[in-house]
Write a structure and sequence with these properties.
The chain is α/β, with parallel strands linked by helices. The chain has twelve helices and 20 strands.
């Protein structure tokens, strides 16, 4: 088994990555987040306690694990400190957290602009969390962004902030919004910098040292591949690339280090926000699955849209990200259904597609080609090995492997760490 493991979301986010990363983080020397920001919520449950994280890596619960927020992230210092304070209240006080000095900073004006841009779209909302993630990435690529390392140099930070406000305040004024005061932001971010300074460093150097020492490193993606800015259902996407292919850039390592990729997928599909969703259900089955799976957004609380497992998406994501195994999540939620379905193709204007089209205009016309399987009634939440699952449940797993061409390595039958079935022996060795 490789000492480097990437865990990515393979649908529209909210697949249960928090549980899987937490499961492997128990054995990892380092956990690295390589993209996204505090718009990505995930929930971790163990020992009867539930924890919600947004930007902090899932290894934060293990005192022996070094947690890294990589250079590919956009970091909101206010959010990081708020998350840490919440964890302290819950008794999580012994941890190691490092933040890349090259990570972009989410500033107050980014959230203001995010909300304004969304409002201007009228009825064509993207469904952003309005936390400033997109504008922060936009400033990064416009080269007017501020980076975490800048906060350690007060004079340089002041220069960067003045330059940024010269542009951002003009945008805000144009949009009829209140402009931001330099002194207010500068003084507040100097306070935040003082608290975070011990954590800010060259994380690429640290990660590479661990790689060369053959340490166990878990690379944790946020959101899901169908929200990828390049390959997702554009424009209803996030502002970064959750793919394992972005690990080298977002973490600051060479590509040859990546060889094992676990694609986290629900046993069905969900989506929060706007955009086409070919397998979406609009009947009582959607309501039943939503309530049984507690399908509400970790960050927003929004009810998630429900659909059948989409093998078209799974095959597409599998080849883009080099997925070596599926982690099939919330499998227990399907227990009790008379029938379960899997989408194996998209029917679009008389043609059956095997891969998602690039435009949402065409994707919106796609109808799922479904195969139906018998469901199972048994409670599976206390089962710990694959062979003990009901025959129909095993048949469902094998059918997913057949139609995606990728083996299932993990099955989750409940929210707790212990409610996890490991099928692939190699994954037991991480």
């Amino acid at each position: 088994m490789s000492e480097r493991l990437v865990v990515i979301g393979s649908q529209w986010g909210d697949e249960g990555k928090g549980k899987i990363t937490d499961f492997f983080a128990c054995h990892a020397d380092m956990v690295v987040r390589y993209q996204g920001g505090n718009n990505a919520g995930h929930t971790v449950v163990f020992d009867g306690h539930k924890y919600s994280l947004q930007s902090i890596p899932s290894g934060i619960f293990n005192p022996a694990t070094v947690n890294v927020m990589g250079n590919g992230m956009v970091v909101n210092p206010e959010s990081v400190i708020a998350e840490l304070e919440k964890l302290h209240v819950q008794g999580i006080t012994d941890y190691q957290l490092k933040i890349s000095d090259r990570a972009a900073v989410v500033m107050p004006y980014h959230a203001a602009l995010d909300g304004a841009y969304e409002s201007l779209k009228g009825g064509k909302l993207i469904g952003t969390t309005k936390k400033g993630i997109g504008p922060a990435y936009a400033d990064k690529y416009s080269r007017i962004g501020i980076r975490m390392g800048d906060l350690l140099d007060p004079e340089y930070f002041a220069e960067r902030l003045r330059d940024a406000l010269e542009i951002k305040n003009r945008e805000l004024k144009m949009l009829g919004l209140e402009e931001f005061d330099f002194d207010t932001i500068y003084n507040r971010y100097m306070e935040l910098a003082e608290k975070l300074a011990p954590m800010i460093c060259d994380t690429s150097d640290l990660i590479n040292k661990y790689l060369h020492e053959d340490k166990k490193i878990l690379f944790e993606g946020a959101q899901g591949m169908m929200l990828c800015i390049d390959h997702g259902t554009y424009p209803f996407v996030t502002s970064s690339t959750p793919s394992s292919a972005s690990v080298p850039v977002g973490a600051g390592i060479a590509p040859h280090w990546i060889d094992t990729v676990v694609g986290v997928a629900k046993a069905y599909c969900t989506r929060v926000g706007e955009g086409p969703f070919p397998t979406e259900l609009h009947d009582e089955r959607a309501t039943e699955i939503r309530e049984r799976g507690h399908e509400y957004g970790t960050v927003t609380g929004r009810p998630r849209r429900i659909g059948w497992f989409d093998a078209v998406v799974a095959r597409y994501v599998g080849r883009l990200a080099g997925i070596t195994n599926w982690a099939l999540m919330l499998f227990d939620v399907l227990s009790g259904l008379d029938k379960v379905s899997i989408c194996v193709g998209y029917e679009c204007e008389g043609e059956v597609l095997q891969s998602p089209p690039s435009t949402i205009s065409r994707l919106a016309k796609c109808k799922p080609v479904l195969i139906e399987l018998d469901g199972w009634k048994e409670d599976i939440t206390d089962i710990h090995d694959f062979d003990s699952l009901p025959e129909n449940a095993k048949a469902y797993v094998r059918k997913i492997e057949e139609v995606t061409g990728i083996p299932v390595g993990i099955i989750s039958v409940g929210p707790d760490r212990k409610q996890t079935i490991i099928i692939d022996e190699k994954l037991k060795k991480f």
